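Ligand-bound model needed. TAP.
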Amino acid sequence: MVEVINPATEEVIEHIDSATAEDTDAAIARAKAAFPGWRDVEPSDRARLLRRLAEALDAEREKLVRLESQNVGKPIASAQGEIDMVIETFGYYAGAPERLLGDTIPVSGGVNITFREPLGVVGLIVPWNFPLQIASWKMAPALAAGNTFVLKPAEVTPLTALEFERIARDAGIPEGVVNVVVGPGSQVGQRLAEHPDVAKVAFTGSTEVGRKIMAGAAETIKRVTLELGGKSASLVFADADLEAAAAAAPAAVFDNAGQDCCARSRILVQRSVFDDFLDLLQPAVEDFRVGDPMSEETEMGPLISADHREKVASFVPEDAPVAIQGSAPDGPGFWYPPTVLAPVSNDDRAAREEIFGPVVAVIPFEDEEEAIRLANDTIYGLSGSIWTTSGARALRVARRIETGVISINSNTSVRVQTPFGGMKQSGVGRELGPHALDYYTEIKNVYLATEEG
Ligand code: TAP
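Prediction:
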């Protein structure tokens, strides 16, 4: 039995039965049985069903928002944005079934025709930080391409995934196409990675578990896509609009209490404006509104658990260079205040490891070369930002940063229409945009001989 807790109050909000490896096998069998039927649904009918699913999610928006906010402790405004993206993601991929086109390639003696075919049963394993949003990035393209799936949410945040399963059924998605299994990663997740009837695993979570999934998938040569950790940098050049960069910096790292793989948890600032930047950052951090997630005004809620708070706090020992610290409520809830460490060396633990909490390291650099070197001096490569008023510099630096996504004078990381994913140990593959469909289909190449005899 899983006790589902509200991290803002520490109250138990639900009890859920915990599934085993055998329950996972049963769900995989249901998905396998449903696959041929779903694969053969006419593209226009599959598109219609996905549009209907997007509408059904929209009709249940308020309930999903409340559940996500309560289960993760996230501000209600953030939960609204996430559920809106879930709805948008299903709307976007509802356009895909009728646009999964192949090529016609004339060759000697005939012609080759390619088809984009679904993989079969896919296993989807997601973390607790953006539960339904991250799941939707996988579920929507998987369904659009004609796959069936088994989704494993994190055990601590299963509520919106279970609601989704019900909503999909009510919207007319055929029995067995959508399956949600709540249970521990070591059993349910590992089983999905190793099961011979699962054609692919799409995972979001830690780099450590990503490695295990890749190893588990190796036995049956499964396709894998992995969205893993990050240690992304915001590069602030002396020619930047410093006020804009400082005003945007808190949300870039404290959003979702820093439990965000795209968090810009390193801010690299050109030394000539280092102190000016910190002066501008101070009020922005101190004014960041931390508190009751149900208030529309709140910008940051608690961390997910007491254990996780302990891990975050370990990055701020007694002698840490705390330059700025915001506030956090007393009393129940796993609160931790927004914290700025400065100046920090890129070799310090706070600059090297993913903290996954509201703690940011501010690091000085001399010139463009050093900024690029420091930004790339990490095992990760997921996201990042460049703050400069020089368009040439912005593009020049963006091309040299080893990262899957980077934004200029902005903290944007994800849009439904554009590819998202990591370089280096931040992952394999891309989600969202048209590119995601490549990871849920195989290309079949058919040769038709047109010469007689
Ligand atoms: P993980 O511990 O990696 O858990 C992610 C998911 O994997 C959970 O559903 C978990 O299940 C499951 N899992 C655990 N062990 C498994 C195993 N041996 N085999 C298969 N599945 C297993 O991450 P987390 O603690 O939820 O999230 C924090 C980490 O995820 C951070 O490092 C963060 O960077 C990363 N993250 C990355 C991204 C992107 S987009 N790159 C997004 C969010 C989070 P249970 O927890 O239920 O046991």
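The two ends are 68 Å apart (CA to CA).
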